Amino acid sequence: MHTSWSDSIQKAPAAAGPANARGSRSSYVPPHLRNRPPSAEQPSAPVSYAGAAMGNDHQGYGGPPVGGIRSVAPSNDRNGGGGGDGWHSRNSSWDRGREREANPFQDTLDTEQAFGAQESTGINFDAYEDIPVETSGKNVPPPVNTFADIDLGDALNLNIKRCKYVRPTPVQRYAIPISITGRDLMACAQTGSGKTAAFCFPIISGIMKSHQSAPRPPRMPRMAFPLALILSPTRELSVQIHEEAKKFAYQTGVRAVVAYGGAPINQQLRELERGVDILVATPGRLVDLLERARVSLQMIRYLALDEADRMLDMGFEPQIRKIVQQMDMPPPGMRQTMLFSATFPKEIQRLAADFLSNYVFLAVGRVGSSTDLIVQRVEYVLETDKRSHLMDLLHAQRANGDQSKIAAIPCKAILWNSSRNALNLLRFFDVWFPDPGLRFWLQQSLTLVFVETKKGADSLEHWLCINGFPATAIHGDRTQQEREYALRSFKSGKTPILVATDVAARGLDIPHVSHVVNFDLPNDIDDYVHRIGRTGRAGKTGLATAFFNDNNSSLARSLADLMQESNQEVPAWLSRFAARSSFGKNRRGGGGSGGRFGGRDFRRDASFNRGGMDFYGGAQINSGGYGGPAGAYGGGYGPTTTVTSAWD
Ligand SMILES: Nc1ncnc2c1ncn2[C@@H]1O[C@H](COP(=O)(O)OP(=O)(O)OP(=O)(O)O)[C@@H](O)[C@H]1O
């Protein structure tokens, strides 16, 4: 019997022993007292942000006083490299806390041993060299070139190494220094470009640094007082962010907990009672926890919305307003707010401004664009021909060997070492050994097929299976257990085809997805951008095929524009469709009336800036390359290169 994700999350602390579990329930242990960083290494000449001009009311390095509850740490506390006693001199008597923490890198280590450490060596950075970057806002802190340029803290730096992140991605180069100086941020960067770390690192680092001087939360034993809240639109994405956050926060003393719907609330409550610094949650479950008075947001210093445009669209906006504006969360300026997405329509930017204070706008690549790493194909396929066309694609894929060219997923390194030849043989015959003692099988490259309806997903999954293509499906009518099982089965390659509705469109980072098929195209081009972004991640290339017919004509123009922007070949017939479709409707770039795409910071619009108000204080447009510029800020990482704006 398989264990669910939620089970495994719940098991991790339990595995550490009941005594610890009991002990931790009675009183909250502040994170800085739970662990010490394992390494005494000093960061190498980190950039100090203590003197950076702060546009917010935020004081000092890492954040504001919150609602008058938290005192502000002296700036040397927050600048560990600056000689303050920060986290470098924590009390070692609490080291035992570290023993309770399951090693989140264990699976990765097994995998690496089995792969001979070939996999997960990181991003192909060359793919990001020429990406244009725009920042706007007052006194934008300069970008960095390496993680060592930022004083993130020893324990976090060690985890960055464990993750094999050698260099920051462009969004990380810009977003981390901006956030670490306490500025609010609206960041837009392409799918798969490392946004999760871009908001997690400053949060973890900030919590590590400030706990030394932070007061304890109010004495309310059954209520959790997180310091950071990360909201995401789907359960699976929240689970994924939590998994990432646990890796980044390993042995830092910062504890991340996840809460999402569809899983038993009691287990999540128990986790919260054990203490929480970073709460990763879906909005619905969080509202439930707030209404039960089991979570208070009064200590929140960091608020991050992942997929922020989705979180603020009509579906989620009321819940988000309730959480952020109508409960006890400190207001903008008294907390630090970070909004991230690959797409940011202008009207959503406008809404989002309510949640921010004197923020920096960051766009890496064109707002809402797709990455050039994804080869996009559009084929004209009648509704009635879609299944047979998909079958043709899958057969061709199989014939080309695309189904089995990745390596094996591992389990026991010993097994791998002693049976390398056997494994090669197995790879050749495409054999899978489900026996747990021989837990390795061929990792196939994976195909994700998007459909419009839940019924459509079920029926296509069934049809694929009976036609010899092992498939599974994920959608909102499946139980959480079924959803988790489907995702795990897909990730492992056991069912290398996943049929999905938009529930899987955003944020999910599934290695080896080499092909995304838009069996049914979405109505909104932003949804298309997120869907195809499940492939071509972290510098890898991918293929996206869309089945287009007359039912999709309203998308023709925006699709053609997007493909052109991403240097894709636009079929002549699609250009004709685009020319026929009404001007301005679902058009990219925000140029046409009613255009909903924010090509840049909406504050730069004349209509917004009417009356001479200087909302953004100028923009810098840079190439994202590593010898790159620091813009007009004068931070100096090489010559300043102002390139032609991709936004004008
Ligand atoms: N500096 C780095 N070096 C190497 N790999 C990285 C780095 N930063 C992130 N990654 C990896 O890149 C992949 C994509 O990251 P992530 O999921 O954060 O992308 P994203 O921008 O949030 O995508 P999406 O828009 O789809 O949500 C992950 O597997 C992550 O581990």
UniProtKB/TrEMBL annotation:
SUPFAM superfamilies referenced in this protein's UniProt entry, alphabetically: P-loop containing nucleoside triphosphate hydrolases (SSF52540)
Motif (Q motif): 145-173
Highest taxon in the source lineage: Eukaryota
Pfam families, per database record: DEAD (PF00270), Helicase_C (PF00271)
Residue ranges constituting the Helicase ATP-binding domain according to the UniProt record: 176-362
Residue stretches making up the Helicase C-terminal domain: 437-578
EC number: 3.6.4.13
Listed CDD domains: DEADc_DDX3_DDX4 (cd17967), SF2_C_DEAD (cd18787)
Annotated catalysed reactions: ATP + H2O = ADP + phosphate + H(+)
Keywords: ATP-binding, Helicase, Hydrolase, Nucleotide-binding, RNA-binding
Residue ranges occupied by any DEAD-box RNA helicase Q domain in the UniProt entry: 145-173
Nucleotide-binding as UniProt keyword: yes
InterPro entries from the UniProt entry: DEAD/DEAH_box_helicase_dom (IPR011545), Ded1/Dbp1_DEADc (IPR044763), Helicase_ATP-bd (IPR014001), Helicase_C-like (IPR001650), P-loop_NTPase (IPR027417), RNA_helicase_DEAD_Q_motif (IPR014014)
An example molecular function term from Gene Ontology annotations: RNA binding
Low complexity bias locations: 12-26
Leader peptide range in chain numbering: none
Region annotated Disordered, chain positions: 1-99
Family: Belongs to the DEAD box helicase family. DDX3/DED1 subfamily.
PANTHER family: ATP-DEPENDENT RNA HELICASE DBP3
Stated name of the protein: RNA helicase
Organism the protein comes from: Buddleja alternifolia
